[in-house]
Amino acid sequence: MIIIDAGHGGADPGANGHGVTEKDWTLEVSLHQYHFLRKLGIQCKVTRDRDVLLPPERRAALVKQSGAKVCISNHYNAGGGSGAEVIQSIYSKSKLAKQTAGALSNAGMPVRRVFSRKGEAGDYYYMHRLTGSVETIIVEYGFLDSAIDMKKLSIRSFRLQLAEEAALAAVKYSRGVENSLYVVQSGAYYAKDKAEKLCEELKQKGYEAFVRKTN
Q: Count of alpha carbons within 13 Å of 13, Cβ hemisphere only?
């Protein structure tokens, strides 16, 4: 089980830059991860599926009580800087964070750093401090106020690709897989109805199958 957290929401907009509000993009990529993993047959949940405010205690409780092994908390940065960041708990062995950072880097987004931050009561971030045994990583996919990052992030397909890579890293980690996951493609069509027909035939034969649009 993996739980996906769309950072911020409602009256909490998060970061802003180049006309983009963080809460909108975190919801976009979180819902994409959810449907992406469901199509792969992976059990998953989301903390929010719409533009709603979640107080810290409520958000953390949803993660803690989810039954998940891993939580991906999706964010975008601002305030000067460039590149993705992955933040782990001070108690983490860092394997998940490093695998996620490697996946983002391989997908084309430079990684600024992988780090943890200590506070007076343990972890500085409540998503680490209050989520219990669920291993939570905070993924900052880039800086909204960076022209360098936004040149890439403004392309929606690239944002979704990064989200998929982070999701697959979580799957591999939770299943103890060191190497790549292999996806078998059985057909490619220009006509959507033909693709959906083949997908349905495969499902009827007992295979996990889904239709994915590529650019």
A: 8
